[in-house]
Amino acid sequence: MGLSIAQQRDRGFSLIELMIALALGLIIMLGVTDLFVDSSRTQGDVSRASRQLENSLFALDLLAGELALVGYWGEADYPVVADDPNFGPLRLAEMSGETVAGYPAVPLLCVGTGKQGRNPRVELGWAMEYPLVSGLGVDLEVAMSSAACDSAISSPKDTEEFVAIRRASTCAADPSGGSDCPPIGNFFHLQANGCYEPNANLSGGEIKLHRVTDADADAVLNYRDFGCGSASSERAPIYRYVSRIYYVNQRDELVRLELADSNTYRESVLVEGVEALRFEWLIDRTSDGDYDLIRSVADDDWSEEARTNDWQNVVGVNMSMIVRSSAPQTGYHDTNIYQLPGQTWTNNKDQHPRILRSRTVELINVAGRRR
């Protein structure tokens, strides 16, 4: 006798039916999990690519802003002649008995430390003649030894370029504290005279360069901006001396060394994953503001002597930078060949996506004044 409908309903599922249901549920769960994993991986790849893009743009914007300000010495004219007897920052009348020794044939990089036996003020004064210096990391590694820079900073990547930038801060300091600029503290500042006072032997344009504090800045940096000789004459602007070196270290980080109050260079890591940094310098040897030739430090016909003479003639630069993703991307293999100034850059065909960024920057304080 067959089971009634009610009895069949009470019996439930058979073992086979349960196994089929479990198998189907497992398949569905595996599909959903696989979809979730793929979605998470894709989201991670997009996030890393976004960070990579942001890093490369940030690094280029930072370097572009610094290079555009090369040669800015406030109200002082460019180029600066350090020991000019009438206008230079190392005039004997302003040196208080300090010896102004001849500057090395190859410009110093870690200037202002005094670790190589020179007065820090003398180093910074001579460096005003070379507001831009560049080269390969292998040269920088020698120049930034503990005897010249600081033993605590990271080593540069030998094959990539560095750039040393010296200029005045674009923010005029105020010894009274009424400025939004950082306080004067105890650091080197400069000031250009804006007054013509024959009776005081002032021709207008003289440069003072001194280490000052908030307490003595007014007395030491006492040049006037206008209203010469009158009680209402205003003090000429006071600018902090900026000396920075940008390079790629052996951990593929773009770092900045900056002269600090303690007569040493402090390191800041700016961007991670920078594998290559290269420059092409646009050089104006005819002083008309437009470049006549293009050179990179990899050029065999651009000798060290020629480079030293040309740093004051650079009116523009083509920058190139390769920035690597922070993590590998599954299924990706970088087989690209990247063309940089003076170098064809290849990699190990790994799984890290890369971005090649380039930008051209005009050195407005050099090219503009020449025009």
Summarize this entry quickly.
With about 375 residues, this protein is an alpha+beta fold.
Write the layout of secondary structure elements.
Layout: H1 5-11, H2 15-68, H3 120-127, E1 132-136, H4 137-143, E2 161-173, E3 186-192, E4 207-213, H5 217-220, E5 224-226, E6 234-235, E7 238-248, E8 253-259, E9 265-272, E10 274-283, E11 293-295, H6 304-310, E12 314-324, E13 338-340, E14 343-345, E15 354-362, H7 364-370
Antiparallel strand pairs: 1-2, 2-7, 3-4, 3-7, 5-6, 7-8, 8-9, 10-11, 10-12, 12-15, 13-14
Descriptive terms for the model:
371 residues, alpha+beta, 2 domains, 7-stranded antiparallel β-sheet, 4-stranded antiparallel β-sheet, 7 helices, 15 strands
Please, could you describe this protein's structure?
The chain is an alpha+beta fold. It has 2 domains: 22-68 and 273-371, no CATH class; 75-271, no CATH class. It is 25% helix and 27% strand. It is built from 7 helices and 15 strands. The chain has helices at 5-11, 15-68, 120-127, 137-143, 217-220, 304-310, 364-370; strands spanning 132-136, 161-173, 186-192, 207-213, 224-226, 234-235, 238-248, 253-259, 265-272, 274-283, 293-295, 314-324, 338-340, 343-345, 354-362. The strands form 4 sheets. Strands 1, 2, 3, 4, 7, 8 and 9 form a 7-stranded antiparallel β-sheet that branches. The radius of gyration is 31 Å and the shape is elongated. The N and C termini lie far apart (112 Å). The mean pLDDT is 84.
